[in-house]
Amino acid sequence: xxxxxxxxxxxxxxxxxxxxxxxxxxxxxxxxxxxxxxxxxxxxxxxxxxxxxxxxxxxxxxxxxxxxxxxxxxxxxxxxxxxxxxxxxxxxxxxxxxxxxxxxxxxxxxxxxxxxxxxxxxxxxxxxxxxxxxxxxxxxxxxxxxxxxxxxxxxxxxxxxxxxxxxxxxxxxxxxxxxxxxxxxxxxxxxxx
Amino acid sequence: xxxxxxxxxxxxxxxxxxxxxxxxxxxxxxxxxxxxxxxxxxxxxxxxxxxxxxxxxxxxxxxxxxxxxxxxxxxxxxxxxxxxxxxxxxxxxxxxxxxxxxxxxxxxxxxxxxxxxxxxxxxxxxxxxxxxxxxxxxxxxxxxxxxxxxxxxxxxxxxxxxxxxxxxxxxxxxxxxxxxxxxxxxxxxxxxxxxxxxxxxxxxxxxxxxxxxxxxxxxxxxxxxxxxxxxxxxxxxxxxxxxxxxxxxxxxxxxxxxxxxxxxxxxxxxxxxxxxxxxxxxxxxxxxxxxxxxxxxxxxxxxxxxxxxxxx
Lengths: 193, 312
Prior knowledge:
The complex is a heterodimer. Chain A is of the alpha+beta class. Chain A contains 6 helices and 11 strands. Chain A has helices spanning 14-30, 66-69, 89-100, 122-126, 137-148, 178-188, and strands at 6-11, 37-45, 50-57, 64-65, 70-75, 78-83, 105-109, 112-116, 129-131, 155-161, 164-170. In chain A, strands 1-2-3-11-10 form a 5-stranded mixed β-sheet, sandwiched between helices. Chain A has a 4-stranded antiparallel β-sheet with strand order 5-6-8-7. In chain A, 28% of the residues are buried. By secondary structure, chain B is an alpha/beta fold. Helix content of chain B is 35%, strand content 24%. Chain B has helices at residues 15-24, 50-57, 90-99, 122-129, 142-152, 168-174, 196-222, 229-239, 265-274, 283-286, 305-308, and strands spanning 3-11, 28-35, 38-46, 63-66, 73-78, 103-108, 133-137, 160-163, 181-183, 252-254, 258-261, 276-278, 281-282, 287-291, 298-302. In chain B, the strands form 4 sheets. A 5-stranded parallel β-sheet of chain B has the order 6-5-7-8-9, with helices on both faces. Chain B has a 4-stranded antiparallel β-sheet with strand order 2-3-1-4. At the A-B interface, helix 1 of A face helix 5 of B.
């Protein structure tokens, strides 16, 4: 696994641990989450049964701005934006409509947006924040871990914040002292509360 | 005359020569696929005449290969139809068996997931029992398979092949009473099987299925069926023209001991029972025409010689 500093799967069945390491790697790779995870420890006990995943995240500072996916070309009385990646087109248009009004925004085709009679400096427009990928990160992580965890583990407890996350799942009611177990697993990675 | 299952692959040009030849020799074409310029025939042919077919199809660049799974319907059973098992590995196994001539159906259980909570319901059980063989694709933990397998196999009468993460030996140790076949090191995984060792694993599953089916064929041969299911298929195609209007890929699915007919039971069961085979013997005389648990299809179960005292 690239870019992840610490990655362990702990399980009393050695073969099961090996498979789950592969599954975790595949799922995180598919969901494009390897680059945000710094450390990850997974603990599975099929006898209880319980699945614990905990880890820390890398700092994500990159907000998506207009300049990241579009070129702004100022012209006489209008401004043409050439879009290179469509992923953020919808949220950008929404922001433009609110800010300049629908009558000043035109989109002749998929890769072009034209702003008419906009007084603002092209530099300012380039700096407009369109999306914050970290907002959806929690949802994405939980979804990924739901895929990784053995199926049928429907009772879950998730925590997220402060650059770390934990995900506990089981088919039975979770033990009351489950947080102690999670803290132990964090300690294994050298992370203390 | 023993019929053996083979696959014929060749160009579409003059392929009717081969089809006619197979029928003249007393064989049956079970499935015919036309893919662009290529024709794939899955058929039963007399064992002694394979060389003749090879000989005649040589100028047409035809290729005859053994495919032991032709004429079988296989259930690929997974604990659910969620992303945990689909598309890999369940679909990979299903697709691989299909390539070798079997008709495979995926059976995802409603509540087959988890360890303590895993269960099978009567509909799933009956649907699985309508197949020739069931391939169970379970998970990666020995402890879990040991715990849930007795629940999942309850009431299943067809041979079971168990695929799971642990080694074959480990699987054999934990399943009691034993099932018919085991394939180790194929548990749950989340990537496509495309590397050579993964493909080798799939081949191992096929080998195991073939071995178990071969055993079953031998058992059937001891008390032969009153009529070959493939023959019934041709008869129904001839005498019940409505079957041509069914849009399913295989409106008539041949099994080892019967046939699935994808027509509504209430309307067509009496019609099928009356279809004559030979000398006044009808399908109703040599086979049971039963409602299938799969949609409102019909399942025909051919009775053995010992029950009917006729072989047609």
